[in-house]
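thread: overnight batch results

M.L. [08:02]
morning all. the overnight job finished for the chain we discussed friday. pasting input first so we're all looking at the same thing
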Amino acid sequence: MSPRSPSVNEELRRRSRERILVATVELVSARGYEATTLGDIAERAGSARGLISYYFPGKRQLLQAAVHRLMHLTLDEALEREPRTEDGRERMARAIDAVLGLAVDRPTLMRTHMAGILQADGFVQCQEQQRLAFLLRDTVVRYGSDDVDTDYPLLRALLMGAVVAVLLPGAPMPMARLRWELFQRYGLDWEMGAPPDGGPPDGASVVRVREPGQSASSK
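M.L. [08:03]
and the structure it wrote out:
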């Protein structure tokens, strides 16, 4: 049997790494972070335990990569779903809904993820995080920002803050209210994106429309 080509080996490594990331999301979502071991993840992924250490320096870094992959895939699906659109405001609405939706649909996973980010190590600079960042930055560009270097990190911070508010133990904010506040900031109509059932919260009828050329960070 002839040896595998470098391209075949690379594809096998990619698939193996992807299985590990998928298994991490599944197990942490179901069991929580502390109850999920690297051995559990390896077993679910059908991989050797040592292979996880080859790809990731630790469990926290693995979790961040797994969640960033999930966020990237979720955001990409939302932005490209039918009917496809190049309208910057609609794409901004879809991006907001995609991230808030993950907080609602996968609270254990996202709460654990946010707690890890707030620790000293912060963001893990990995390919999954870079892909997510590219999509969010591109969303800001298509929205029409005049200052992307300011507006992109602002959007990221606002989304992170909204996710934390949804997941805050004992005092969570209603997702509809947070969505409305973000839509107000970006001058988006409530019916854009994927509006939740029940309509906007009481008293939430005014949309502050952004003037042409106005930065998304402008008041």
